[in-house]
Amino acid sequence: MTGWARAAAVARKDLRMEWRGRAAAVTSLLTGLLLVLVLGVALGPDPARAAAVVWVAVGSAAAVGIPRITQAEADQQALEALLLYPGRREHLYWGKAASLAVLLGAVAAVVLAVAGVLFALPLGGRLVPLAAVTGAGVASLAALGTLLAGLLLHVRGRELLMPLLLLPLALPPLLACIRLTDAILTGTPAGVWPGVLAAAVAVFGLACPILFEVVVDDA
Amino acid sequence: MGGNGREVAERVEAPAVRVVDLGRRFGRVWAVRHVTLTVPPGRVLLVSGPNGSGKTTLLRLLATALRPTTGGGAVFGCDLVAAADRVREVVGLVGATFGGYDLLTARENLEFAAAMWGRPTDVEPWLRRVGLSAVADRPVRTFSQGMKRRLALARVWLAGPRLLLLDEPYAGLDREGTDLISAMVADVTGQGGSAVIATHDRDRARALADLELVLQDGEPVVLRARAAAAPAGVASGGGP
Known about the structure:
heterodimer, A: mainly alpha, about 80% helix, about 0% strand, globular, B: alpha/beta, 6-stranded mixed β-sheet, disordered C terminus
């Protein structure tokens, strides 16, 4: 059995539990939709602001939903059992990050679709580049969020601390996603932002699994 | 024989548990200290003592869930700190809590455990063994404490651990469940493995035990072999 098969088992288990409990999905989705609606009404249907509204909503949805991905394990005292399975803990990280990416990807897709209606965005014909940017943005949020969920697992008030840690650390990929989404929707040059986003995905993808092993050790 | 072969041979002959001056502190409070003992393969160690005496902490140290503050030890020749990954391959801990997932069914819980242990994911034989076949597809949140306990046993049993760690195993179990504990311990020791049972219910566990360690305030006060012929190499308890 490879470590990747273990990672897949963790991801399947997390998604199955999320499907039944919907603890993180409902919270994230409602937060994202609420922000899009409030900002959409407050700012008016100006397409130039749509990209920022979408990614502020996705970032906030992630900050609210991520603490809940380890909630079930903490509540049911299943974390220790999970950590005591053989194999490297990096694979637990990848399993949890994959399930979180699926969850945030679904939230981002719904938020983008609602923003498309509110801001009258020309989404048709631009779905492939938008999906690529959304995928990279969600991957970077999931990579960082999984690490922070492990770090804050036993911290009281983690729901408050998560946005305080996640949003500043995720600022480079979030800014890159805003600029790139705007560039795709308006047809303007992307500049250096594809490189910034790719660098964020690479750095988070390399550093966070290693740090996860450290933060959950002797938890 | 190459270096790797020698290493494997040493592990096969190594004690199931060997710890020297093992201690763990939480803040300024010592949960466990001055524990020195050896458990040969095929033997069962009973760890008893009142609440808060350090039984669970000792089990968690042996399972690598905690790092020792002082001293160290090895499980079947694998160091508790330096080779924690290898220790986890041979140790199965049944904690005082269920350790599974309430939103999953019993079958899904065992399939997940089997996948994580790298064992076959046909878990029906294990469900039958612990008497949960009839409720295999019910969510665990509908289970009684005793049923959850049986599922926790199956979750570890299917892994075939060489060192079985049982923390208060009799809590919430009926007579049949208690017999399952005995069967599980016999199964592990029959294959050359060992078991450590931590409980304050000494009378039940004594029938299974070859060795007994009594803890008081985290320190060993008694360490004795219960079998008539004490196995060689069973070290004395350290500390005062």
